[in-house]
């Protein structure tokens, strides 16, 4: 007879649900413009990586860099930013999320891009974000 080992399963499932809740709370804070709440979801030494050759590409180290050197440089009209979450999967300390960002740019263009993010959490804080998107489209519409 085989015995299944369920030791720690309940705790792992609970932490996966909590990690999803933290990530969705972060996304909700971004959309609502609650930057302090979004900032609070990140670890002090969090990193955010963006591929490609955009002016915001590379690794942003720490909350200050993430919010001031990266997010503040994206030219969206205030109040026009929305996110449609398509899929959310959590496993271990990671949460993968697929979403569509829609916004109007500061020069009046319509922006709609599809994203995939990998969030890694530690101690109930977002420790690392890896962002994947159509960088050519972003460059043409946002940073032309």
Jot down its keywords.
about 140 residues, Nuclear Transport Factor 2, Chain: A, six-stranded mixed beta sheet, 6 strands
In brief:
The protein has 144 residues and is α+β, with helices and mostly antiparallel strands.
Protein model, in words:
With 144 residues, the chain is an alpha+beta fold. It has a single domain, classed as Nuclear Transport Factor 2, Chain: A (Roll), CATH 3.10.450.50. 33% of the residues lie in helices and 39% in strands. It has a six-stranded mixed beta sheet with strand order 2-1-6-5-4-3. It starts with 8 loop residues before the first helix and ends with a helix. The model has no long low-confidence stretch (mean pLDDT 93).
- Binned strand content: 35-45%
Tell me the Rg in angstroms.
17 Å
Main β-sheet, spatial strand arrangement: 2-1-6-5-4-3
Regions with pLDDT < 50 over 5+ consecutive residues?
A: none
Question: What is the CATH architecture descriptor?
Answer: Roll
Helix amount? 25-40%
Number of strands: 6
**pLDDT averaged over residues:** 93
Q: Main sheet?
A: 6 strands, mixed
What's the structural domain tally? Answer: 1
* DSSP helical segment count: 4
Characterize the overall form. Answer: elongated
How far is the first residue's CA from the last residue's CA?
65 Å
CATH level-1 class = Alpha Beta
Write the H/E string, N to C.
Answer: HHEEHEEEEH
- Given helix and strand content, the structural type is alpha+beta
Do you know the CATH topology?
Nuclear Transport Factor 2, Chain: A
